[in-house]
Design brief:
Two copies of one chain form a homodimer.
Chain A: E1 5-8, E2 11-15, E3 26-29, H1 32-40, H2 47-64, H3 70-82, H4 89-104, H5 110-139, E4 148-151, H6 166-175, E5 181-185, H7 192-203, E6 208-211, H8 216-222, E7 225-230, E8 234-236, E9 241-244, H9 247-256, E10 261-264, E11 270-271, H10 288-291, E12 292-293, E13 296-297, E14 304-305, E15 310-313, E16 320-323, E17 326-328, H11 332-341
Parallel strand pairs in A: 4-5, 4-7, 5-6, 7-10, 8-11, 10-16
Antiparallel strand pairs in A: 1-2, 2-3, 8-9, 9-15, 12-13, 16-17
Helix pairs in contact in A: 1-2, 2-3, 2-4, 2-5, 3-4, 4-5, 5-6
C-alpha cells in the first residue's frame, strides 16, 4: 500500500492527491509553509490525514526555527497551520496536542524540544493507523454480508495515515470474509471517490464501481445497497456530522429507503464543545473546482458558483457512529460523551 | 435565442450540445442515419427536442428515399430512429405521429407524401414552442416569489424546440415579474446543468448559480430554495416520472424539507400504457461518460462504472405536473387521464 504521508530527513513527503489516479507523484514539504500550502491545496486531505500533516508541520516548523525564538516560532507555526482549513476538527486537535507537549517541555534544550516534537508527530501517525484498525474491528460486524456498501468521498488510506476510517471498516469486513462490493460516489467537485477511493480499493482487489453522486438515490432505492459508510470531518456533541458535501443527501436517501447509515471516525473528530452541527464552520472553496475539471472548463465564463466543501447531516439520519473505542448510537449526547471520556 | 434544431434545404441543422458552452458549433444531418446518430450521441437531447429530431429524421429519410420503395424505406427509417434512445417517450410519440400521417397518405404521389411529411415535421417543432409557452403560463403562478428555483439537468430551450419546459416555467415566472434566481445542478455525467442550463439562462439574463449535484440537499435544507422544477422523459399513468438520473434524489430531498417539487412536461411525455414507472425502460450509457470529462480521464483504468441515464421518481414525491393543458395533481391516475383526453 502507498504511504499517504511520511516523515523523512528531507521533509514531510506526501503523495499528491490532486494528481491521482493519473499520476502517482510525491511532493516533499521542506518547511511548515509548504505543509500548510499542501493542506490548503488538498495535496493532502481527509480529516485524520490533515491531523497527521498538521502535527508534522508543527514538528518541521520547530525543527527549522532558530534557537533564540522557539516560543515565537511555535506560535506562528500553529497559527498558520490552523488557518489552512476550517471544518475538519482533527487539524485543531493535532495542533493542540503538539502545543500541550511543547508547553510541558519548558526548560528543556532546543534540541530536546525538537526531538520530542518530531517523535510526537510520528507517534500521531502510528496511532492513527492503530485507531483505524480498531475502528475496522468495531465496524465490520455492522456490514451486511452479500450486499453492496455505498461510500461517499474518500475516507480511506489516503484520508488517514493508512487503512482508512470508512474504508477501514470495509477492509475489515472483507478480511472477516464477508462477500461485499463497493459503490463509490465520484464526489464532485474534487472527485475523491472516482479518483482516490476507486484507486485505493482497486489496488486492494476490492470490487468497486463508480457512480456519479446523483445516481446514489437510484441505487439506494434499487435494493442492492446493504448499508452506507462514510467518514467525518467534525462531529458535534449531539451526533450531527459534518462531512464532504453530499453526505447529507446520501443520509436522507438511505433513511428514506430503510438502509443503515454509518459514520466511521476517530474520537479526535468529536467536537463536544459544539452542542449541534449548526455551529460547525463550513469551508467555501474556489469556484474553479466546479467550473474546471483537471484544467478543462466545463461551464460558461462568468457564471456564479457555490462551492461549500462540507454539509451537516443531522443526527436523526445517523444509524451509528463507529469509533476506535466502540460504536455509538442515539442518544448521541450520552454515547459520544461516554466514548470521549473512556480510554 | 439560439435555434436548437432547424429544418433547412441542406438538411436538419442542430447546435451540437456535446460541445456547448465551450463552442457553439452547428452540425447538419444530411440523411436519417445522421439524425439517428445525433440523437444517440446526444448532439441533440431532451425529450421534446428528441421528438422534433425524430419527426425531422423521418421527413428527411422519406425525402431521400427512392420512389419505388417508399413503404420499405419508411419502415426502416422509423425502426432505426426508434432504436436510438429507449427512455424518452416523445421519440416514439413523434415517430407514431409521422407513421399515422404516412398511412393516411396512401395513394398520393411520392412528391405529395414527401411534402406532407416535411410540413408535419416542421409543424411538430412549431407546436412544441407553443406548448412550452402554454406550460409557462400554467406553471408561473406556482413559483414562489423572492426565492431560488432549483432545477436539474437541462429542460430548457435546448431540450425543446425553444423556450423550454422547466426553464419555460422559470422564464414565464420572470416575465410575470417575479424576483427569482436559479440554482442549476451541474448534472453529471453529461453536465447538462453546468453546460446548457447555465449557458441559456445566462443569455437571457436570468441570475443562475451552478452547484454540483451533491450540494442540492445542502441548499434544500438551507431555506433559500422556494421550489424545484424539472422536466420529464416519460410519465406513467400513475404519475411516476422518469427523468435525468438524480431527479429522484432531488425529489426526496425536497419532500424531506417541505419544498414543492414540480415536473413540467408536454402531454406527449405521458405514457398511459404503463401503469407505473417501474415499467419504464432505463437507458444505460457508456462508462466513458463517467470516467472522462471532455476527453480527460478522471478515474483509474479498468474500474467498473454504472451509468443509468435516468431514474424514476415515485408519484408521492411529485407536488404537481405542469402540462400545456393545465396542472395535474394527485391522484394522478385521474388527473393525467383527464388532461390526456382533453383538448
Amino acid at each position: 500500500m502507498v504511504e499517504t504521508i511520511q516523515w523523512t530527513a528531507g521533509g514531510v513527503v506526501m503523495i499528491d492527491q490532486t494528481k491521482l489516479p493519473l499520476e502517482a507523484v510525491y511532493v516533499t514539504c521542506k518547511d511548515y509553509h509548504e505543509v500548510a500550502e499542501a493542506i490548503r491545496s488538498m495535496v493532502i486531505r481527509g480529516a485524520p490525514a490533515i491531523g497527521v500533516a498538521a502535527a508534522m508541520g508543527v514538528a518541521i516548523g520547530v525543527l527549522r526555527a532558530p534557537d533564540e525564538n522557539l516560543d515565537g516560532s511555535m506560535e506562528a507555526i500553529c497559527e498558520e497551520l490552523a488557518g489552512t482549513r476550517p471544518t475538519a476538527v482533527n487539524l485543531f486537535w493535532a495542533i493542540d496536542r503538539m502545543k500541550k507537549l511543547y508547553a510541558g517541555l519548558r526548560g528543556k534544550s532546543p534540541a530536546g524540544i525538537r526531538a520530542a516534537l518530531v517523535a510526537e508527530a510520528q507517534q500521531v501517525k502510528l496511532e492513527d493507523i492503530a485507531i483505524n484498525r480498531a475502528m475496522g474491528r468495531h465496524g465490520a460486524p455492522l456490514i451486511p454480508d452479500g450486499k453492496t456498501v455505498l461510500t461517499h468521498c474518500n475516507a480511506g488510506a489516503l484520508a488517514t495515515a493508512g487503512y482508512g476510517t470508512a474504508l477501514g471498516v470495509i477492509r475489515a469486513a472483507v478480511e472477516a470474509g464477508k462477500k461485499i462490493d463497493v459503490f463509490a460516489d465520484e464526489t464532485r467537485p474534487f472527485l475523491q471517490g472516482a479518483r482516490l477511493t476507486a484507486w485505493e480499493l482497486q489496488q486492494d482487489g476490492i470490487e468497486t464501481t463508480i457512480i456519479t453522486d446523483n445516481m446514489a438515490g437510484h441505487f439506494l432505492k434499487s435494493g442492492r445497497i446493504g448499508c452506507v459508510v462514510v467518514g467525518a470531518d467534525r462531529i458535534a456533541a449531539n451526533g450531527d456530522v459534518a462531512n464532504k458535501v453530499g453526505t447529507y443527501s446520501v443520509a436522507v436517501l438511505a433513511k428514506e429507503n430503510g438502509i443503515p447509515f454509518y459514520v466511521a471516525a476517530p474520537v479526535s473528530t468529536l467536537d463536544l464543545t459544539l452542542d449541534s452541527g449548526d455551529k460547525i464552520p463550513i469551508e467555501q472553496r474556489s469556484p474553479k473546482e466546479v467550473t474546471e475539471v483537471f484544467g478543462v472548463r466545463v461551464a460558461p465564463e462568468g457564471i456564479a458558483v457555490q462551492n461549500p466543501a462540507f454539509d451537516v447531516t443531522p443526527n436523526r439520519y445517523v444509524t451509528a457512529i463507529i469509533t476506535e473505542r466502540g460504536v455509538a448510537a442515539a442518544p448521541y449526547e450520552e454515547s459520544l460523551r461516554r466514548l470521549a471520556g473512556s480510554v
